[in-house]
Design brief:
Layout: E1 7-11, H1 27-38, E2 43-47, H2 48-51, H3 55-65, E3 69-73, H4 79-89, E4 95-99, H5 101-113, E5 119-121, H6 126-137, E6 148-149, E7 190-193, E8 196-197, E9 216-217, H7 220-232, E10 238-241, H8 250-262, E11 268-273, H9 280-288, E12 291-299, H10 303-308, H11 315-327, E13 331-338, H12 345-358, E14 362-367, H13 375-383, E15 386-389, E16 401-404, H14 411-426, H15 429-441, H16 445-460, E17 469-470
Parallel strand pairs: 1-2, 1-3, 3-4, 4-5, 7-10, 10-11, 11-12, 12-13, 13-14
Antiparallel strand pairs: 5-6, 8-9, 15-16, 15-17
Helix pairs in contact: 1-6, 7-8, 8-9, 9-11, 12-14, 14-16, 15-16
The structure holds cobalamin (B12) and iron/sulfur cluster (SF4).
């Protein structure tokens, strides 16, 4: 058999990484691909959404490539998509390996549930993936390399990667970037990137399975080098930095901004930040360096809820962070939660009042969803609050969602409150007019209008009948 590649990393047509209309690049796979290439393996990335492939196009492309190994990835809420892709790719290669959050969280259980899998890569897979390829090439004899879980062998975890600068930049040349879109992109062509990994905070709902609590960061020089490559080599104008905690060390953010300015790099970027990571001076510097949007985990406008979630932040700081960004002309996005134990439906309207008064530009309200392994999951299961429901917000990627139903909340109440909050934020005439003007200025009217219509339709639609099943 003449192979054109040794390994193909594949993402099937249903998994777009975000919403159906806005596929995002498969960043975990692009990191793995870069390390495999560096180790001398011939690698392909087959991202159905990125290449516009339907089911038959996807399998046909893999069949033509004839890889020896196919690698899959996925998050827990998307495990049905992992299983579907596994069925498709199994006949097309000799071995299939799964990496990513789901594999890492469930380990042996994931392997047991998917008998067609040959191996799992647990945790950050840069070193383990190429070690696994070498192990398989040598006949798979003896113990598997660290970070690799196979049946009937003891598992040895891989070492945490401390020096992120030593990793190669994601292999973006392996995917076409024409189809990737992001709702907050402000320029033509989009990609995402990671400049640090991990977060030392202790929010009870956060799943840090992959990146952990130890914060590890790339140097400003390395980060801006990648940004320069994104702009120059790939002609991409807009980047989202999806770090868990981009602003943890202020001096590093300042150094990144200074370096962007020094290199005169003309690129727009968004980052995700904690509200205590932004000061007025930093926001101004970030804006000068091309930052157009910052997303904050606001979570709630009620201090007792922030304390319950162990967020270690206060409502006033959130207000100041939003104000600092407004002052610097940076758009703000907030993520907030509905159904927090101890918060009544009426109290959740306080969060709406808070974000409206603070002048936030966009909000995503979600039901509080506990993942196995988090403190909140343990509490929810011991209190009997854990449910599989179909209460979704308009941007959720899942089909059903594990949700908390604490005392005072029913599935209907959650759904009603979510719609009330979205409607109360987005369906304000003055807000819509302001956003339309801004979107027109940035050439984003079409994309933003489509999203606006989707949200409006969702807010105004009658209650979908929820499917409630006690977990
Ligand atoms: C960026 C991000 C997003 C982005 C983009 C996702 C994307 N497809 O690129 C957006 C905002 C769209 C998003 C959406 C969602 N996300 Co998200 N997201 C993240 C975030 C912040 C970073 C992920 C990332 O890019 N990491 C950088 C890369 C390099 O790491 P990585 O992908 O994990 O890959 C490494 C390893 O996992 C491994 N690996 C991964 N794949 C493979 C494959 C092979 C073959 C091998 C060998 C190794 C390997 O090696 C890689 C390199 O070290 C994480 C938090 C985190 N730190 O993990 C949450 C996180 C992964 N998301 C989460 C969730 C729940 C979601 C949603 C379900 C939310 C929702 N309700 O809609 C959706 C699902 C989208 C989808 N269809 O898959 C949860 C997952 C929890 C779980 N147990 O599954 C996390 C952990 C957040 C959290 N703290 O709770 N997300
Ligand atoms: S600050 Fe963000 S990344 Fe850090 S633990 Fe809390 S939710 Fe997770």
């Amino acid at each position: 058999v003449r192979r054109t590649v040794d390994i193909a990393l594949a993402r099937g047509p249903e998994d777009t990484g975000a919403s159906a209309t806005m596929p995002l690049p498969p960043m975990g796979m692009l990191h793995i691909a870069a390390s495999l290439e560096q180790a001398g393996w011939r690698v392909a990335v087959v991202d159905a959404a990125g290449e516009g492939l339907d089911e038959s196009g996807f399998t046909e492309r893999l069949r033509t490539l004839r890889p020896q190994v196919i690698g899959l990835s996925g998050m827990t809420p998307m495990r049905h998509l992992i299983a579907r892709d596994l069925q498709r790719v199994r006949p097309l290669c000799e071995r299939v390996v799964l990496g990513g959050v789901h594999a890492t969280r469930f380990q042996q259980q994931a392997l047991d549930e998917m008998p067609d899998l040959d191996a799992l890569v647990i945790g950050e897979g840069e070193a383990s993936a190429s070690a696994l390829m070498s192990w398989w090439s040598a006949g798979g004899l003896g113990a598997p390399p660290p970070g690799v879980l196979v049946r009937d062998h003891p598992f040895v975890p891989a070492e945490v990667i401390d020096d992120l600068d030593a990793l190669p930049w994601p292999a973006r040349h392996l995917v076409p970037h024409d189809r990737y879109r992001y709702v907050f992109q402000t320029r033509h062509r989009f990609t995402s990137m990671i400049s640090s990994r991990g977060c030392p905070f202790r929010c009870s709902f956060c799943d840090k399975t992959i990146s952990g609590s130890a914060w590890r960061a790339r140097s400003a020089d390395d980060v801006v080098g990648e940004l320069e490559e994104i702009r120059g080599r790939y002609d991409i104008g807009s980047v989202c930095i999806f770090d868990d905690n981009f602003t943890l060390r202020r001096s590093r953010v300042e150094a990144i901004c200074e370096e962007i300015l020094r290199r005169d790099l003309d690129i727009h970027w968004k980052c995700e930040a904690r509200v205590d990571g932004i000061t007025p001076a930093l926001a101004k510097l970030m804006a000068r360096a091309g930052c157009r949007t910052v997303a904050f985990g606001i979570e709630s406008g009620n201090q007792h809820s922030l304390d319950f979630l162990k967020k270690d932040q206060d409502v006033e700081t959130a207000g100041r962070a939003i104000a600092a960004c407004r002052e610097a002309r940076i758009e703000t996005v907030g993520y907030a939660l509905v159904g927090i134990p101890g918060e009544t439906p009426v109290e959740s309207l306080e969060t709406l009042r808070f974000v409206r008064d603070a002048g936030l530009d966009f909000i995503q309200f979600s039901t509080l969803s506990p993942f196995e392994g988090t403190e909140l999951y343990d509490l929810a299961t011991s209190e009997g609050w854990y449910r599989q429901t179909s209460v979704l917000n308009p941007v959720d990627a899942e089909q059903t969602r594990a949700t908390l139903l604490p005392p005072g909340w029913s599935e209907e109440q959650l759904d009603r409150t979510l719609r009330q909050l979205y409607g109360g934020f987005y369906l304000r005439p003055a807000y819509l007019a302001r956003q339309a003007l801004r979107a027109r200025r940035d050439g984003l009217l079409g994309a933003r209008a489509r999203l606006g219509l989707e949200v409006a339709r969702w807010c105004l639609a009658g209650r979908r009948v929820g499917r409630s099943a006690a977990a």
